[in-house]
Amino acid sequence: MAGFRLINLAKPFLPILPEVEVPYEKIPFDDKMVYTVFASLIYLFAQFPLAGLRKATGEDAAAHAPTVADPLYFFRGVFAMEPKTCLEFGLLPIFAAGLFLQLLAGLKVIKVNFKLAADRQLFQSLTKILAIAQYFVLANIFIASGYYGADLSLPQIVVLNIQLVGGGVFACLLTEVIDKGFGLGSGAMIINTFAVATNLVSDTLGVNQITVDSEGNTEPQGALINLIQGLRAQHKTLVGGIVSAFDRDYLPNLTTCVLVLALGCLVCYIQNIRFELPIRSTRARGTNQMYPVQLVYTGSLSVLFSYVVLFYIHIAAFALIQLVAKNDPASIVCKVLGHYETVNNIIAAPTFPLSMLTPPRSLVGGALSQPLSFVVYSFFILASGVWFAYNWQQVSGMSARDLARDFKEQSITLLGRREQSLPRELNKVIPVAATTGAMVLAAVTIVGELLGLKGKGAGIVVGVAGGFSLLELITMEFQESGGESSLANMLAGGLSL
Amino acid sequence: MSTAVPPGGQRTLQKRRQAKSNKDKQLNQTPTSARQAGAGGSSNSILKIYTDEANGLRVDPLVVLFLAVGFIFSVVALHVLTKVTGKIF
Q: Could you tell me the keywords of this UniProt record (chain B) (predicted)?
């Protein structure tokens, strides 16, 4: 007997674990599109404010007001997490469980025999259980810390748990519906891309009015709308309105919008850098073609992995500081890790040792008050991204050896190389592309975050890079469907008008 | 003066044995991911988690979508309930 195996832990939970059915027949392209869009829309609607929280007004408001501001402000844009909603933790547990378990299984830390269907199924169930367990643990860390208000009553805690874990379970199931073949590509990534795109639009063009000061003056969320409205606002001068449109720090401003768009364009450019290997068929003569190897070989996954690890470092520190030391600067834990300071009433910024792993909130302010984080944070993102990319390209089933096997099956070989040396020749390109690509993508993320984008920089990198990977898959699927799509016909008809 | 090593003998046998054991090792190695085993799953730039139909409580995808909408509406109802009763439980 193999003894103890981690995947066997999933067995007792199987009867109660919801499992989406695999489609009986091939789903047409149009139906896949509908499933994908609806699942993503439902996810976005599930970012609904939590019920059961005390309102900030009222006679006992001061006693029960939340004592803890948002410590995860710079993860919000990366994992589609909305503060104080059912999806407080967004897609993070799903990404964390998937990336960690698949990487560990690939590195043979967890023993899974992927050749056996039973093992694969147990592994998949374990991933789901781990994701749901993370939602539960994270929710209770936040509830216990006082993020949702000090001294909550027992029913309140139960209701909050139901909403947060329920939101998590449904996020898991929605990604599963897409993953299983009802939708296009990968569920978690496509929903994340949807959320990044939605955030980008609402940060630029959002019209919803948010109260910004005690007199009840409101400003729109969108930066561009804010500029237009600032020109005729009653509580600001004309010049003051224009200046504040560019440098307000409580809501998205135009400077960050332009920076985010510039980063998005940069990632588009980087995505198109590829190394072309000349290939030829071993059967027919004179059919030379190019096999492109993308520079960003692991796509957005390297940045996602860096941020998952960073998140867990921060949440562990948060739990220690808030739950053990009660955020008291005199406590020994806070002397070692630092404590949280509330900024703008919204965000909780960590102080010295922990702040080294936190991107600065603005370039100049960061350079003056936390210069070390420029070094430590950058190094962390770079190193973890490159380490992940190197290992992932080996274990993900698209390594040089696997590609060589695919080439052989399709009777393709590299031009001017012996067929036996195919794995070695591919091995000269693919690990280099993966690590260099991860490094470039990490560098773009770091530049964006050091400029003070508070997670929006990493978000746009993940969104655009992930979007390109998905687009590749979707185009392939569309071509396989033979172009028989009424949606495409409609779009083409619309263009020809 | 070096003498030419005659072909065959111990060394060739050892080499053959080594090559064979290497080959066996590669054959016996379990794949590192579902894709390597030829069963779909994550690729180099796509993270795919759910590709097999595991045992569990089978649900239809449409049921999942409707239940998710139902969950959102139950949160809305909870909001209304707390607003109407004016207190939180």
A: Endoplasmic reticulum, Membrane, Protein transport, Translocation, Transmembrane, Transmembrane helix, Transport
Task: Tell me how close the Cα of A435 comes to any Cα of chain B, in angstroms.
Answer: 12
Cβ contact, residue pair A121, B47, below 8 Å: no
Which tens digits make up the pLDDT trace of A458-489? 999 999 999 999 998 888 888 887 766 777 77
Output the DSSP codes for A335-388: HHH--EEEETTTEEEE-HHHHTTS--SSHHHHHHH-HHHHHHHHHHHHHHHHHH
Beta carbons of A21 and B60 less than 8 Å apart: yes
CB atoms < 10 A from the CB of A286, how many? 6
CB spacing of B35 vs A113 below 8 angstroms: no
Q: How far is CA A363 from CA A78, A113, A180, A360, A453, in A?
A: 20, 48, 43, 7, 9
User: Which residue, chain included where needed, has tokens 């063009």?
Assistant: A205
Does an H or E element contain A292, and which? strand A288-294
Tokens 């702040």, located at residue = A355
Among A86, A112, A121, the residue with its CB nearest the CB of B52 is: A121
CATH T-level topology, domain A10-54+63-206+257-481: Preprotein translocase SecY subunit (1.10.3370)
Candidate from A86, A99, A393 with C-beta closest to B47: A99
Domain spans in chain A, listed from the N-terminal domain onward: 10-54+63-206+257-481
Mutation for B interface: A82, A124, A298, most B CBs within 10 A: A124
Tally of CB atoms within 10 A around A145: 22
| Nearest by Cα to B32 from A117, A386, A113 | A113
What beta strand segments (E) does A7-66 contain?
18-20
What are the domain boundaries of chain B? Answer: 59-89
Does residue A471 belong to the interface with chain B, where contact is any CB pair within 8 Å? no
